[in-house]
Structures are given as structure tokens and as C-alpha cells.
Specification:
This protein has 2 helices and 4 strands. The chain has 143 residues and is of the alpha+beta class. Strands 1-2-3-4 form a 4-stranded antiparallel β-sheet.
Length: 143
């Protein structure tokens, strides 16, 4: 009886350790969950890249709460979830404080140049914006 109880304890501890290791490395739904919404916060004095949240895609300046990027989103012609979007810039790059560059081709942009982007509407989340290029590298004749 003593050997049976000792074996049962070792098996139970082994199963618990396997469960803990599996949940730690693979994030199993019954184990420890990692918070997927945690993102590293941008520092106010640090440099920002154009893909980061609250960053202007044209001049890469970090935007404060309430600062907006001027955009124009067109309605979708089909019932799809993506729409065409024109990005003009934030208050800093439109006023001439910062230099404006296309994040795709790297060409300098004037105040009349825009970025062409595609905006994907996602349910229960913020829309995702994918920059396709500027009006110089996209060669749109509609401008």
C-alpha cells in the first residue's frame, strides 16, 4: 500500500509539471494565458517607426492624445471589408514642422502629396490600415 501511494504521488506531480510546462510554453487555454493586448509603450523621447500606434505614417512623429491624422476614406464598391483611403498627414507634417516622406518608396512628399492606403474594417476592433504608397509611386491619374 505504501508503494502504491508513493507512485500515485509521483505520477500526480509529474502530470502537474507537464501541464505547467505545456501551458507556460504554448499558452494552452486551461493554463496561464499571456495578455496579447500588451504592447511595448513608445517613449515620448524615443524614436518611433511608421507602423507603431499613435504615429503619423508620413513624418513618423508621435501623436499625443487628441492629435489626429487627416484622412479620407472612400466607401467600398463591393460588400467587402476593405476600403480605399487617402492619408494627408498630421498637424505637424502639414504645418511644415517635420519633413514628409513616403514609407514605401522613401521619396520626399510635398504638402499636396498623399498616401494611398487600404483600410480593413474589423468587427469589435480598430480598423487596420495598410499603406500602399504615395501618389508618386502608385502612379494614380485620379489625383
Amino acid at each position: 500500500m505504501q508503494g502504491y501511494l508513493q507512485t500515485l504521488i509521483f505520477v500526480t506531480i509529474g502530470i502537474a509539471l507537464l501541464w505547467f510546462g505545456y501551458s507556460l510554453f504554448f499558452g494552452h487555454r486551461w493554463g496561464i494565458r499571456r495578455n496579447r493586448k500588451e504592447r511595448p509603450q513608445l517613449q515620448k523621447t524615443g524614436s518611433a517607426s511608421p507602423g507603431d500606434p499613435q504615429v503619423c505614417p508620413i513624418c513618423s512623429s508621435q501623436l499625443e492624445k487628441g492629435d489626429l491624422v487627416q484622412t479620407l476614406a472612400y466607401p467600398s464598391l463591393t460588400q467587402g471589408k476593405d476600403r480605399l483611403m487617402h492619408i494627408q498627414g498630421c498637424v505637424f507634417c502639414l504645418s511644415g514642422e517635420y519633413e514628409r516622406y513616403c514609407p514605401v518608396c522613401g521619396a520626399p512628399l510635398s504638402n499636396s502629396d498623399i498616401l494611398v492606403a487600404r483600410m480593413f474594417d474589423r468587427p469589435h476592433r480598430r480598423p487596420h490600415v495598410h499603406v500602399l504608397g504615395c501618389n508618386q509611386c502608385r502612379k494614380l491619374g485620379i489625383m
